[in-house]
């Protein structure tokens, strides 16, 4: 607890890198949970297994549906609903696109009709599909791909929700102390909001595994209250005694740590006086005298 409060009071930034790492881990976990749960439900779904068992093996070659031959089938995708799969490879029966919704397979093309997504019927020619055989294994592999895409979309949506809540808590916490007039250190409210949001979400995930879950407004309010409490409880931010920027690999130190150089007394230097120099300069030079012999 003391380390967390010390980080909130004297840390750097607003905790953005920690929340980024947390959100990535959460999205990966959610993708795994979504895909495994949906896949398990589809594998044990009786309606889906019945549908796969009724669909015959389809063979496409040379831009046409050649198997099954001379067949007309109407298979409901889900029992009790209007969605159906229609296979018509009988030349005497014309293509009829008046079905409610679902998929219509003719000898030349496949028609998709989903009124909830589009009013028009989407057409794909078999020549665009290529030569292939579609059996139950291929249908199950295609279903796995659809589940993977669906799980990825859910994980991305959940990630957007996490970041939206993160930004709102950051703004709300900062705005609260600004209105209150309470002085906080640089980035202190941001770090407190990050710690509180991560903590509340972690607790909610643990409750989710225990078949309990908090609503989004409750989670948001709890995170804001916890962020305010952390700011009030954290120690005052330490002040730097030396200001300025550090250059290259230098580290600023406080004034108390700066050692004053020891001053050693200078030895006196003997200098000739001005008068003595003048006397030496004015003294005439004596010339040698010659002795005269008598």
Describe the structure.
This protein is an alpha+beta fold and 294 residues long. 49% of the residues lie in helices and 12% in strands. The protein contains 8 helices and 8 strands; from the N terminus they run H-H-H-E-E-E-E-E-E-E-H-E-H-H-H-H. The chain has helices spanning 2-10, 16-43, 46-54, 126-129, 136-180, 188-209, 216-233, 274-282, and strands at residues 58-61, 64-67, 72-76, 83-88, 101-105, 109-113, 122-125, 132-134. The strands form 2 sheets. The protein has a 5-stranded mixed sheet. A 3-stranded antiparallel sheet has the order 2-1-8.
What percent of the residues sit in helical stretches (DSSP H or I)? 40-55%
Strand order of the biggest β-sheet: 3-4-5-6-7
Helix-strand pattern:
HHHEEEEEEEHEHHHH
The count of DSSP E runs of length 2 or more, i.e. the number of strands, is 8
| Tally of DSSP helical segments | 8
Shape: elongated
Alpha-carbon distance between the termini? 121 Å
Low-pLDDT stretches are 239-260
What is the SS-derived class?
Answer: alpha+beta
Gyration radius, in Å = 43 Å
Q: Hey, roughly how much beta strand do the residues contain?
A: 5-15%
Q: What average pLDDT do the residues reach?
A: 76
Main sheet specs? 5 strands, mixed
């Amino acid at each position: 607890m003391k380390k967390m409060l010390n980080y909130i009071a004297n840390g750097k930034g607003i905790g953005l890198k920690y929340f980024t790492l947390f959100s990535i881990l959460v999205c990966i976990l959610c993708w795994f949970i979504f895909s495994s749960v949906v896949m398990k439900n589809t594998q044990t779904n009786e309606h889906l297994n019945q549908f796969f068992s009724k669909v015959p093996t389809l063979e496409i070659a040379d831009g046409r549906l050649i198997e099954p031959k001379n067949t007309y089938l109407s298979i409901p995708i889900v029992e009790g609903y209007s969605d159906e799969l229609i296979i018509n490879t009988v030349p005497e029966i014309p293509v009829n696109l008046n079905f409610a919704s679902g998929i219509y397979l003719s000898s030349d093309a496949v028609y998709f009709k989903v009124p909830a997504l589009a009013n028009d019927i989407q057409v794909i020619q078999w020549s665009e599909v290529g030569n292939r055989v579609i059996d139950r294994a291929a249908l199950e592999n295609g279903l796995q791909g659809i589940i993977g895409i669906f799980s990825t979309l859910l994980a991305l949506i959940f990630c957007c929700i996490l970041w939206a809540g993160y930004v709102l808590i950051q703004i709300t916490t900062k705005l609260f102390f600004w209105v209150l007039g309470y002085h906080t250190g640089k980035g202190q409210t941001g770090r407190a909001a990050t710690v509180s949001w991560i903590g509340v979400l972690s607790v909610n995930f643990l409750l989710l595994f225990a078949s309990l879950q908090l609503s989004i407004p409750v989670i948001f309010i709890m995170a804001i209250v916890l962020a305010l409490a952390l700011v009030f409880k954290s120690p005052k931010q330490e002040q730097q005694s030396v200001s300025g920027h550090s250059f290259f690999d230098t580290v600023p130190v406080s004034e108390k740590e700066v050692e004053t150089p020891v001053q050693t007394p200078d030895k006196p230097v003997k200098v000739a006086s001005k008068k003595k120099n003048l006397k030496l300069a004015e003294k005439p030079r004596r010339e040698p005298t010659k002795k005269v012999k008598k």
